[in-house]
Amino acid sequence: MALFNFRREAAPTQQTPAAVEAFLQGYSIEVMPRTAEKVESFRDLLPAGTRVYIAHIDGTPIEDMVATAKRLNAEGYPVMPHFPARIIKDRATLLDWVARYQGEANVKQGLILAGNPAAQVGDFGTSMQLLESGAFDGFDRLHVAGHPEGNKDIDPDGSDRMVMEAARWKSAFAERTDAKMAMATQFCFEADPVIAWVDRLKAEGVNLPVHIGVAGPAKLQTLIKFAIACGVGPSLRVLQKRAMDVTKLLLPYEPTEFIASLAAHKAENPDFGIESVHFFPLGGIKTNAAWVTENGGASGVPAAQA
């Protein structure tokens, strides 16, 4: 059955469970300028209209970010560049970035996030300051960061008090902007805690739809390295347990079980707050896109094959 076998060249299969195919419909994926350069044509990898986030790592020139956005837009993909508050020097810099994205690459979407606390170089320290700046007036869609397992940079005491307070603020902001908003999360590896967190958001009055972060197929050692660096919490134990199993140690991790569990819950609970899947292609965008094509049925068919 295709859901449980990874074959990169295989075509979509009629055996793909309907719940998984529906859950993966409209997924998004993340690239960086240096990884995008290695892709000859995104149409060979991604379904038409796939939203592509462009991660802005500290030190990446804005010229490279805009050029990547322009290229993706020309290939027919809506682009959502990151705007990390702490690497933006001041309001003039922010307005310059927005003007370049809009003028050169027709960008109308953005992921607004705080970024690394140690990297703050100027006036902005939080995503909320960026949202309040007015720089994104006229954008069609704004996404903000979500943390299903908390964030120790924000809540050093290990709670999620400040994270949840910020989520409520962002939800309230969504009610007073014309832009569509959603919460794109850090990647996780366990379905049950994610389900509990999404339900808790609703109970806390946070009405932002969730775009759940998923780590794409990758070597186990690679995933553990990224998970630790990105502050992934308790669900890291899924990888640690796998690392202790000699029969699985050398096999690539695939998000099959995680996706299937969330998809089944969504199918049984249509009002459940996860709206979409967002992939972090930690094992490479080609590998990630191939996995979705294999496991997502029609929802993963590249534009060139549609």
UniProtKB/TrEMBL annotation:
Gene Ontology MF terms in the entry:
oxidoreductase activity
Q: Which InterPro entries match?
A: FAD-linked_oxidoreductase-like
Q: Does the keyword Oxidoreductase apply?
A: yes
* Entry keyword set: Oxidoreductase
This one is known as 5,10-methylenetetrahydrofolate reductase
In terms of domain of life, where is this protein from? Bacteria
Q: What is the lineage of its organism?
A: Bacteria, Pseudomonadati, Pseudomonadota, Alphaproteobacteria, Rhodobacterales
